[in-house]
Amino acid sequence: AFEVLVIGGGPAGAAAAVYAARKGIRTGVAAERFGGQVLDTMAIENFISVQHTEGPKLATALEQHVKQYDVDVMNLQKAVGLVAPKTPGGLIEVKLENGASLKSRTVILSTGARWRNVNVPGEAEYKNKGVAYCPHCDGPLFKGKRVAVIGGGNSGVEAAIDLAGIVAHVTLIEYDSQLRADAVLQRKLASLPNVTIVTSAMTTEIHGDGAKVNGLSYKDRNHDTAHRVDLEGVFVQIGLVPNTEWLKDSNVALSNRGEIEVDYRGETSMPGVFAAGDATTTPYKQIIIAMGEGAKASLSAFDYLIRLPAE
Ligand code: FAD
Description:
The protein has helices at 11-21, 55-67, 135-138, 154-164, 183-190, 287-306, and strands at 2-7, 27-31, 43-44, 53-54, 71-75, 79-83, 92-96, 101-109, 113-115, 131-132, 146-150, 169-173, 195-198, 201-208, 213-220, 225-230, 233-236, 240-242, 273-275. By secondary structure, it is an alpha/beta fold.
Protein backbone atom coordinates (compact mmCIF):
# COMPACT_ATOMS: atom_id res chain seq x y z
CA ALA A 1 0.00 0.00 0.00
CA PHE A 2 1.01 3.59 -0.54
CA GLU A 3 1.28 6.29 2.06
CA VAL A 4 0.34 8.98 -0.47
CA LEU A 5 -1.57 8.10 -3.61
CA VAL A 6 -2.15 10.94 -6.05
CA ILE A 7 -4.97 10.63 -8.56
CA GLY A 8 -4.30 12.83 -11.59
CA GLY A 9 -1.04 13.80 -13.28
CA GLY A 10 -1.50 17.47 -14.14
CA PRO A 11 0.36 20.35 -12.46
CA ALA A 12 -1.45 19.76 -9.14
CA GLY A 13 -0.77 16.02 -9.10
CA ALA A 14 2.86 16.40 -10.16
CA ALA A 15 3.53 18.96 -7.42
CA ALA A 16 1.80 16.76 -4.83
CA ALA A 17 3.86 13.74 -5.88
CA VAL A 18 7.18 15.61 -5.72
CA TYR A 19 6.41 17.03 -2.29
CA ALA A 20 5.35 13.61 -0.95
CA ALA A 21 8.32 11.78 -2.43
CA ARG A 22 10.72 14.29 -0.89
CA LYS A 23 9.44 13.19 2.53
CA GLY A 24 10.70 9.71 1.75
CA ILE A 25 7.27 8.12 1.93
CA ARG A 26 5.75 5.55 -0.46
CA THR A 27 4.16 7.64 -3.19
CA GLY A 28 2.14 6.67 -6.23
CA VAL A 29 0.48 8.63 -9.03
CA ALA A 30 -2.32 7.20 -11.14
CA ALA A 31 -3.29 9.38 -14.09
CA GLU A 32 -5.52 8.89 -17.07
CA ARG A 33 -3.19 11.10 -19.10
CA PHE A 34 -0.05 12.38 -17.43
CA GLY A 35 0.36 16.11 -18.13
CA GLY A 36 -3.35 16.93 -18.02
CA GLN A 37 -4.67 20.08 -19.64
CA VAL A 38 -1.13 21.33 -20.08
CA LEU A 39 -0.79 18.85 -22.94
CA ASP A 40 -3.51 20.74 -24.83
CA THR A 41 -1.94 24.15 -24.34
CA MET A 42 0.33 25.99 -26.72
CA ALA A 43 2.02 29.11 -25.35
CA ILE A 44 2.28 29.51 -21.58
CA GLU A 45 3.49 32.94 -20.52
CA ASN A 46 2.22 33.26 -16.96
CA PHE A 47 4.16 30.51 -15.24
CA ILE A 48 6.24 32.90 -13.18
CA SER A 49 10.01 32.82 -13.78
CA VAL A 50 9.48 31.08 -17.12
CA GLN A 51 8.78 33.81 -19.65
CA HIS A 52 7.58 31.48 -22.34
CA THR A 53 7.07 27.77 -22.63
CA GLU A 54 4.83 25.39 -24.49
CA GLY A 55 2.35 22.94 -22.99
CA PRO A 56 3.89 19.69 -24.18
CA LYS A 57 7.32 20.91 -23.04
CA LEU A 58 6.02 21.73 -19.56
CA ALA A 59 4.17 18.40 -19.42
CA THR A 60 7.42 16.55 -20.17
CA ALA A 61 9.21 18.59 -17.51
CA LEU A 62 6.49 17.72 -14.97
CA GLU A 63 6.91 14.03 -15.66
CA GLN A 64 10.70 14.21 -15.56
CA HIS A 65 10.63 16.03 -12.24
CA VAL A 66 8.32 13.42 -10.71
CA LYS A 67 10.46 10.58 -12.07
CA GLN A 68 13.57 12.04 -10.40
CA TYR A 69 12.10 10.54 -7.25
CA ASP A 70 11.04 7.11 -6.21
CA VAL A 71 7.43 7.55 -7.31
CA ASP A 72 5.32 4.77 -8.78
CA VAL A 73 3.86 6.50 -11.85
CA MET A 74 0.88 4.65 -13.28
CA ASN A 75 -0.05 6.43 -16.49
CA LEU A 76 -3.18 5.64 -18.52
CA GLN A 77 -5.02 4.55 -15.39
CA LYS A 78 -8.49 5.91 -14.82
CA ALA A 79 -9.94 5.99 -11.31
CA VAL A 80 -13.62 5.06 -11.14
CA GLY A 81 -14.32 4.89 -7.41
CA LEU A 82 -13.09 5.88 -3.97
CA VAL A 83 -13.88 3.79 -0.90
CA ALA A 84 -13.47 5.12 2.64
CA PRO A 85 -11.41 3.05 5.09
CA LYS A 86 -13.28 0.51 7.20
CA THR A 87 -11.74 1.91 10.36
CA PRO A 88 -10.54 5.48 10.98
CA GLY A 89 -6.97 5.88 9.76
CA GLY A 90 -7.22 2.64 7.76
CA LEU A 91 -6.46 2.13 4.10
CA ILE A 92 -8.42 4.10 1.52
CA GLU A 93 -9.20 2.22 -1.69
CA VAL A 94 -9.17 3.66 -5.21
CA LYS A 95 -10.81 1.51 -7.84
CA LEU A 96 -9.45 1.66 -11.36
CA GLU A 97 -11.29 1.19 -14.62
CA ASN A 98 -9.20 -1.89 -15.44
CA GLY A 99 -10.68 -3.67 -12.41
CA ALA A 100 -7.62 -3.33 -10.17
CA SER A 101 -7.62 -1.29 -7.02
CA LEU A 102 -4.96 0.68 -5.19
CA LYS A 103 -4.73 1.19 -1.44
CA SER A 104 -3.22 4.06 0.45
CA ARG A 105 -3.19 5.76 3.85
CA THR A 106 -3.86 9.11 2.19
CA VAL A 107 -5.19 10.08 -1.22
CA ILE A 108 -4.76 13.37 -3.06
CA LEU A 109 -7.45 14.02 -5.63
CA SER A 110 -6.20 16.17 -8.52
CA THR A 111 -8.24 15.07 -11.51
CA GLY A 112 -8.58 18.58 -12.93
CA ALA A 113 -11.31 19.86 -15.18
CA ARG A 114 -12.26 20.29 -18.82
CA TRP A 115 -13.71 23.27 -20.68
CA ARG A 116 -17.12 22.68 -22.18
CA ASN A 117 -17.00 22.98 -25.97
CA VAL A 118 -19.57 24.76 -28.15
CA ASN A 119 -19.26 21.94 -30.66
CA VAL A 120 -19.59 23.99 -33.83
CA PRO A 121 -17.56 23.62 -37.02
CA GLY A 122 -14.20 25.36 -36.68
CA GLU A 123 -13.90 25.08 -32.90
CA ALA A 124 -11.65 22.03 -32.81
CA GLU A 125 -9.82 23.01 -36.00
CA TYR A 126 -8.85 26.46 -34.69
CA LYS A 127 -8.17 25.58 -31.05
CA ASN A 128 -5.01 27.48 -30.08
CA LYS A 129 -5.23 29.24 -33.47
CA GLY A 130 -7.73 31.85 -32.30
CA VAL A 131 -10.10 29.66 -30.32
CA ALA A 132 -9.23 30.00 -26.64
CA TYR A 133 -10.72 29.08 -23.28
CA CYS A 134 -8.71 31.00 -20.72
CA PRO A 135 -8.71 34.82 -20.78
CA HIS A 136 -6.04 35.05 -18.04
CA CYS A 137 -3.80 32.87 -20.19
CA ASP A 138 -4.45 33.95 -23.74
CA GLY A 139 -5.98 37.44 -23.45
CA PRO A 140 -2.70 39.27 -24.13
CA LEU A 141 -2.23 37.31 -27.37
CA PHE A 142 -5.19 39.29 -28.77
CA LYS A 143 -3.96 42.74 -27.81
CA GLY A 144 -5.52 45.32 -30.14
CA LYS A 145 -7.54 42.65 -31.99
CA ARG A 146 -11.24 41.83 -32.16
CA VAL A 147 -12.62 38.90 -30.19
CA ALA A 148 -15.90 37.27 -29.28
CA VAL A 149 -16.76 35.70 -25.96
CA ILE A 150 -19.31 32.91 -26.14
CA GLY A 151 -21.33 32.68 -22.94
CA GLY A 152 -23.09 35.28 -20.81
CA GLY A 153 -22.78 33.68 -17.38
CA ASN A 154 -20.38 35.00 -14.75
CA SER A 155 -17.29 33.56 -16.42
CA GLY A 156 -18.25 34.88 -19.87
CA VAL A 157 -19.06 38.37 -18.62
CA GLU A 158 -15.91 38.47 -16.45
CA ALA A 159 -13.90 37.39 -19.48
CA ALA A 160 -15.50 40.10 -21.65
CA ILE A 161 -14.74 42.81 -19.06
CA ASP A 162 -11.17 41.55 -18.68
CA LEU A 163 -10.59 41.32 -22.44
CA ALA A 164 -12.16 44.73 -23.16
CA GLY A 165 -9.17 46.27 -21.39
CA ILE A 166 -6.72 44.53 -23.71
CA VAL A 167 -8.32 43.96 -27.10
CA ALA A 168 -9.84 46.41 -29.59
CA HIS A 169 -13.39 45.08 -29.44
CA VAL A 170 -15.39 42.34 -27.73
CA THR A 171 -18.63 40.81 -28.96
CA LEU A 172 -20.36 38.89 -26.20
CA ILE A 173 -22.62 36.16 -27.53
CA GLU A 174 -25.35 34.71 -25.31
CA TYR A 175 -27.71 31.95 -26.41
CA ASP A 176 -30.46 32.92 -23.98
CA SER A 177 -32.58 36.07 -24.26
CA GLN A 178 -30.67 37.63 -21.36
CA LEU A 179 -27.30 37.42 -19.66
CA ARG A 180 -27.09 35.22 -16.58
CA ALA A 181 -24.17 36.95 -14.86
CA ASP A 182 -24.50 38.86 -11.57
CA ALA A 183 -26.12 42.28 -11.99
CA VAL A 184 -22.99 44.13 -10.89
CA LEU A 185 -20.97 42.44 -13.66
CA GLN A 186 -23.67 43.16 -16.23
CA ARG A 187 -23.66 46.83 -15.27
CA LYS A 188 -19.90 46.98 -15.58
CA LEU A 189 -20.04 45.28 -18.96
CA ALA A 190 -22.74 47.62 -20.25
CA SER A 191 -20.58 50.63 -19.30
CA LEU A 192 -17.70 49.59 -21.56
CA PRO A 193 -17.49 51.40 -24.91
CA ASN A 194 -15.83 48.61 -26.88
CA VAL A 195 -18.24 45.79 -26.06
CA THR A 196 -21.25 44.67 -28.08
CA ILE A 197 -23.70 42.32 -26.38
CA VAL A 198 -25.74 39.98 -28.56
CA THR A 199 -28.43 37.88 -26.89
CA SER A 200 -30.66 35.13 -28.33
CA ALA A 201 -27.74 34.20 -30.52
CA MET A 202 -26.73 30.67 -31.36
CA THR A 203 -23.14 30.33 -32.54
CA THR A 204 -23.15 28.24 -35.70
CA GLU A 205 -19.57 28.31 -36.95
CA ILE A 206 -16.09 29.62 -36.25
CA HIS A 207 -14.41 30.58 -39.50
CA GLY A 208 -10.75 30.75 -40.41
CA ASP A 209 -8.36 30.96 -43.31
CA GLY A 210 -6.86 27.56 -42.65
CA ALA A 211 -4.20 28.93 -40.30
CA LYS A 212 -6.16 31.15 -37.93
CA VAL A 213 -9.61 32.40 -36.98
CA ASN A 214 -11.14 35.24 -39.02
CA GLY A 215 -14.81 35.21 -38.09
CA LEU A 216 -17.78 33.82 -36.25
CA SER A 217 -21.31 33.15 -37.46
CA TYR A 218 -24.39 33.08 -35.32
CA LYS A 219 -28.10 32.71 -35.81
CA ASP A 220 -30.43 35.33 -34.34
CA ARG A 221 -32.91 33.01 -32.63
CA ASN A 222 -35.71 35.59 -32.59
CA HIS A 223 -35.66 36.37 -36.29
CA ASP A 224 -34.00 33.23 -37.61
CA THR A 225 -31.44 35.30 -39.47
CA ALA A 226 -27.76 34.52 -39.99
CA HIS A 227 -24.98 36.96 -39.05
CA ARG A 228 -21.23 36.98 -39.38
CA VAL A 229 -18.74 38.93 -37.22
CA ASP A 230 -15.19 39.47 -38.48
CA LEU A 231 -12.68 38.91 -35.67
CA GLU A 232 -9.40 37.29 -34.73
CA GLY A 233 -10.27 35.40 -31.56
CA VAL A 234 -13.08 33.48 -29.88
CA PHE A 235 -13.13 32.75 -26.14
CA VAL A 236 -15.46 29.92 -25.24
CA GLN A 237 -16.83 30.49 -21.73
CA ILE A 238 -19.69 28.08 -21.30
CA GLY A 239 -18.39 26.22 -18.31
CA LEU A 240 -15.45 24.42 -16.78
CA VAL A 241 -16.50 20.93 -15.77
CA PRO A 242 -14.56 19.27 -12.94
CA ASN A 243 -13.49 15.66 -13.54
CA THR A 244 -15.25 14.42 -10.44
CA GLU A 245 -18.07 12.27 -11.81
CA TRP A 246 -16.22 9.25 -10.43
CA LEU A 247 -16.56 10.63 -6.88
CA LYS A 248 -20.36 11.01 -6.89
CA ASP A 249 -20.91 7.78 -4.96
CA SER A 250 -18.09 8.40 -2.50
CA ASN A 251 -18.34 10.29 0.78
CA VAL A 252 -16.26 13.18 -0.54
CA ALA A 253 -18.41 16.31 -0.49
CA LEU A 254 -18.80 18.08 -3.85
CA SER A 255 -20.19 21.57 -4.43
CA ASN A 256 -23.32 22.02 -6.52
CA ARG A 257 -20.97 22.52 -9.49
CA GLY A 258 -19.31 19.20 -8.82
CA GLU A 259 -16.11 20.69 -7.43
CA ILE A 260 -14.41 18.88 -4.54
CA GLU A 261 -14.92 20.96 -1.41
CA VAL A 262 -11.59 21.74 0.23
CA ASP A 263 -10.59 23.85 3.19
CA TYR A 264 -7.56 26.12 3.38
CA ARG A 265 -5.31 23.11 4.00
CA GLY A 266 -6.62 21.12 1.04
CA GLU A 267 -8.58 18.72 3.23
CA THR A 268 -11.78 17.22 1.86
CA SER A 269 -14.73 16.00 3.93
CA MET A 270 -13.19 12.50 4.10
CA PRO A 271 -10.34 12.08 6.62
CA GLY A 272 -7.10 11.19 4.84
CA VAL A 273 -8.36 12.47 1.49
CA PHE A 274 -7.01 15.77 0.21
CA ALA A 275 -7.54 17.58 -3.08
CA ALA A 276 -5.90 20.23 -5.23
CA GLY A 277 -6.17 22.05 -8.53
CA ASP A 278 -8.96 22.63 -11.02
CA ALA A 279 -11.11 19.80 -9.60
CA THR A 280 -11.62 21.69 -6.34
CA THR A 281 -13.57 24.68 -5.08
CA THR A 282 -10.35 26.77 -5.01
CA PRO A 283 -10.95 29.72 -7.31
CA TYR A 284 -8.89 30.71 -10.39
CA LYS A 285 -7.93 27.71 -12.44
CA GLN A 286 -4.30 28.23 -13.34
CA ILE A 287 -1.13 26.15 -13.53
CA ILE A 288 0.73 28.08 -10.87
CA ILE A 289 -2.24 27.89 -8.52
CA ALA A 290 -2.74 24.16 -9.16
CA MET A 291 0.93 23.52 -8.36
CA GLY A 292 0.81 25.53 -5.14
CA GLU A 293 -2.36 23.76 -4.07
CA GLY A 294 -0.84 20.38 -4.93
CA ALA A 295 2.17 21.12 -2.74
CA LYS A 296 -0.13 22.25 0.05
CA ALA A 297 -2.36 19.16 -0.13
CA SER A 298 0.73 16.97 -0.02
CA LEU A 299 2.11 18.68 3.08
CA SER A 300 -1.32 18.35 4.71
CA ALA A 301 -1.31 14.64 3.87
CA PHE A 302 2.12 14.33 5.50
CA ASP A 303 0.86 16.13 8.60
CA TYR A 304 -2.05 13.70 8.75
CA LEU A 305 0.26 10.68 8.36
CA ILE A 306 2.61 11.64 11.18
CA ARG A 307 -0.35 11.97 13.51
CA LEU A 308 -1.70 8.49 12.81
CA PRO A 309 -1.23 6.15 15.78
CA ALA A 310 1.60 3.64 15.34
CA GLU A 311 0.34 0.23 14.27
P1 FAD B 1 -5.37 18.97 -15.10
O1 FAD B 1 -4.27 19.66 -15.79
O2 FAD B 1 -6.72 18.98 -15.70
O3 FAD B 1 -4.89 17.46 -14.88
C1 FAD B 1 -5.79 16.49 -14.42
C2 FAD B 1 -5.13 15.13 -14.42
O4 FAD B 1 -6.03 14.17 -13.89
C3 FAD B 1 -4.75 14.60 -15.80
O5 FAD B 1 -3.58 13.83 -15.70
C4 FAD B 1 -5.95 13.72 -16.15
O6 FAD B 1 -5.66 12.74 -17.13
C5 FAD B 1 -6.21 13.10 -14.81
N1 FAD B 1 -7.53 12.52 -14.60
C6 FAD B 1 -8.76 13.06 -14.83
N2 FAD B 1 -9.73 12.20 -14.45
C7 FAD B 1 -9.09 11.11 -13.96
C8 FAD B 1 -9.53 9.88 -13.40
N3 FAD B 1 -10.85 9.59 -13.23
N4 FAD B 1 -8.61 8.98 -13.01
C9 FAD B 1 -7.28 9.23 -13.13
N5 FAD B 1 -6.80 10.39 -13.66
C10 FAD B 1 -7.70 11.31 -14.05
N6 FAD B 1 -3.13 27.87 -17.13
C11 FAD B 1 -2.13 28.76 -16.96
O7 FAD B 1 -1.72 29.02 -15.84
N7 FAD B 1 -1.54 29.35 -18.06
C12 FAD B 1 -1.92 29.09 -19.34
O8 FAD B 1 -1.38 29.66 -20.30
C13 FAD B 1 -2.99 28.15 -19.53
N8 FAD B 1 -3.46 27.89 -20.78
C14 FAD B 1 -4.43 26.95 -20.93
C15 FAD B 1 -4.85 26.63 -22.22
C16 FAD B 1 -5.80 25.65 -22.43
C17 FAD B 1 -6.20 25.31 -23.85
C18 FAD B 1 -6.38 24.98 -21.31
C19 FAD B 1 -7.40 23.90 -21.51
C20 FAD B 1 -5.99 25.32 -20.02
C21 FAD B 1 -5.03 26.31 -19.81
N9 FAD B 1 -4.61 26.67 -18.52
C22 FAD B 1 -3.57 27.55 -18.37
C23 FAD B 1 -5.23 26.07 -17.31
C24 FAD B 1 -4.32 24.99 -16.72
O9 FAD B 1 -3.98 24.07 -17.74
C25 FAD B 1 -5.03 24.30 -15.56
O10 FAD B 1 -5.38 25.24 -14.57
C26 FAD B 1 -4.13 23.24 -14.91
O11 FAD B 1 -3.68 22.30 -15.85
C27 FAD B 1 -4.87 22.51 -13.80
O12 FAD B 1 -4.06 21.52 -13.26
P2 FAD B 1 -4.68 20.26 -12.53
O13 FAD B 1 -3.49 19.43 -12.16
O14 FAD B 1 -5.60 20.69 -11.47
O15 FAD B 1 -5.59 19.51 -13.61
